[in-house]
Amino acid sequence: MVTIRDVAERANVSLGTVSRVLNGHPAVRPVAREAVGRAIAELGYVPNPAAQSLRRMKSHALGLVIPDLLSPMTVTLTRAVEDVAGRAGYTVFVADSRLDEGLEASHIARLLERRVDGLLVSPVQPIAAVERCVSKMGRVPTVLVQLRKPVREFPTAFVDEQPAVYECAEHLVSLGHRRVAVLHSGSRAGGGRFRRDLIRGALAERGITGGGDLDRSFAETGECYAAAMAALNGPERATAILVGVHKFVPPVLRAIRDANLRIPDDVSVVSFGDSDWAESISPPLNVVVVDQAAHAEGAMALLLKAISGEPLRERHFRSESIYVRRGSVGPAGGCVND
Amino acid sequence: MVTIRDVAERANVSLGTVSRVLNGHPAVRPVAREAVGRAIAELGYVPNPAAQSLRRMKSHALGLVIPDLLSPMTVTLTRAVEDVAGRAGYTVFVADSRLDEGLEASHIARLLERRVDGLLVSPVQPIAAVERCVSKMGRVPTVLVQLRKPVREFPTAFVDEQPAVYECAEHLVSLGHRRVAVLHSGSRAGGGRFRRDLIRGALAERGITGGGDLDRSFAETGECYAAAMAALNGPERATAILVGVHKFVPPVLRAIRDANLRIPDDVSVVSFGDSDWAESISPPLNVVVVDQAAHAEGAMALLLKAISGEPLRERHFRSESIYVRRGSVGPAGGCVND
DNA sequence: CTGTTAGCGCATTCAT
DNA sequence: ATGAATGCGCTAACAG
Questions:
Q1: Is the CB of A262 under 7 A from strand C?
Q2: Which tens digit of pLDDT belongs to each residue from A180-194?
Q3: Number of compact structural domains in chain B
C-alpha cells in the first residue's frame, strides 16, 4: 500500500506538504505542488478513506433509507440522490426497508454505527419512531423525504398532491363515476391514510360520498388482490379504482382480469406512481406522479446545508405532483348498477 | 464521542482488555468481561469503524456493481446479497451502472478507492475491461455474477439457460411457430449475443432457421420499440417474440399494441426475467427465470471464501433457469402469412 | 489473564 | 512556505 509518506519521499518534500496539496491548501509553492502531483501519479497513490475519516471525524458517507427498491419511483430517487451526493464527494449507503418498520429501524441503527455524516429517510415508521432511532446516537443531520406534508421534527422534502388529486377527482366525476374505490397502503410509505383522506376530500367536495366498503388498505400483494376483488364484486361495485402504491397495481390488474372486467369500459384505474409498464400495457394507465429527481435534489440541498452546519433558512422543500391522462379512465356507463 | 478508553476507565480495566472482549478474545476473566459489558451498555459505546478499518486494514465493506436497478431481478439479487453480507458482518455499497460501460468502470474505481474488501460485479463491459479496472489497484477479491457461462479470469456465478431455452423452443415449434424474433440486449448485461446464439441454436436443432431480419439488438427503450415494430411488420412478420431483457418488455408490448396485434392470438411473447407486472397483465407472460436469491448466495459463498484467503476448490457456481408457461404463447395459426 | 506500547494513514498545529 | 510533531480510536504484539 502506497501512503502519503511514500509520496513525500519520492517528491523530496515533507509529509505535511503532500497533505496540503492533497487538500488544496493555497500555501504551497508551485514547484512543490507539481513535484507532489508527479509523485502521486507515478506511485498511483490513493488516499486511504479510513485514515481520512478517523482524522477528520467525518466519514464522507451518507445513508439513504428507502421503503422499497422494487418501486421504480424509489429507484429514480435513489439514482438522483447518488448523483448529487457523488458530485458533492459523498458515497451513499442505500438501505431498503422493504416496507418493514423493524427493518427500517435496524437499518438506521446500522448506518449510525457506520458513522454516516447525514441521513435521508423515506419513512415507513411513524415520525416519532424515526426520531427515536435517529436520536439514539446523538442526532446526525437528517432529512425526511417523500412525505406528503412537512413535519415539525425534521427538515423534509414533501410532495403536495392536492392539485393533482383534485384534477383527477374532477376527471372521474365528470365522467359519471360515483363509486370510487381507494386502495391504499397500510404502511405509512406511499401515503397511506393521509393520501386516502386527501382523495376522499376531493371527491366529497364534488358530492361523492364514499369510503366505507370502498376504501381498503393492505400491506402486501395478496391482500391487495383481495381488496381489489372485494371492491369489484358485490351489488354496488366500484366503477373506478385508485391504487395508492404503484407496485401494487399488478395484483389489481389481476383482480380485474379474474373478475372478467375490462379497463376502462367496465372499470377505470388510476395509479399513484408510474413505470414503463404502466405506460405500455393496454390500455396505458392514468397516473399521479412527481418528479423524483427534482425531489431528490431539493432534499439533498437541505441535507448538505445541514451537514455544513449552516442554519436552514427554509426547513422544507415542496414538490407538486401531476395527473397524467392516458387510456385507463373512461365513462362510468359500463356499470349496470348505476 | 465515547471511545474504548472511556469504557476502560468506567470498567476499571485497561484499554487492551476492552478491546479483547470486543473482539471475543477468549483469554479474559469473566468478571472483567462482565464489567466491560456493563460499561459499554451504560455509556452506549459503539466502535468507530474508521479506526477499526485503519488498524485492521480491512473495511468490512463490499461493493456490488449491478447493471440496472430498474430490473426487478437485479433488485432481488441485491437484496439477497445484502442479507448474506449482513449476516457475515459486511455492509455493501451498491453501484448501479445503468447499462453504461463507462459508468461501470468508474464505479469499480470508486469502490476500490473506498477500499472495499471484495467486489461482486454483474458486468456490462467485456470481461477483459473489467479485469483491467479491477487490477488498477492490486486486485481485490472479485466474483462475477449473472454470467451466462464461466470465464477464466474470475470466479463466477453463472446461469445455465440451455435447458429452459430448449424447452421454450420446443414449445414454440410444437405450436407451429416458424418465424421467431429474438430481441436482445446490445450490451453484455442480460445475455446479449450469447443468449441470442443459444436461442438460435435451440431453434435450429428443430429445423427453424432464422436470424437475419428477425434478430435485433438494442440499447434503450426507443430502439427496442423500433426493433419490435420491425419484427412485427413486413410481409413475413414474426409469430413469436423472445425478449432478452425484462425491462424492455414494455416497449415490445407497446409495439404490439400499436401494430393492432393481440397476444397470443397474433403473436406469442416470452420474456427473459420476470416481475409482478409480467405475471399480472393480460395475458400473463411466459418467462425464462432463475432463482436470484440462490444465485446470490452461491456468489457470496465464493466471495467470502476468496476474501478469507482460502483457495477456492470450486471456482464457479452454476444455477439453472426454468421456463414458466403462463398465457402469452399460443398456436401460430393467427398469422396469415404462414 | 492483563496492562503497556506501538503504530495503522492522515490532517493539523506549531515552529521555523 | 514547509518540516516536525501530535493524536484521531483502535488492534495486536509483548511483557509481565
A1: no
A2: 999 988 877 777 788
A3: 3
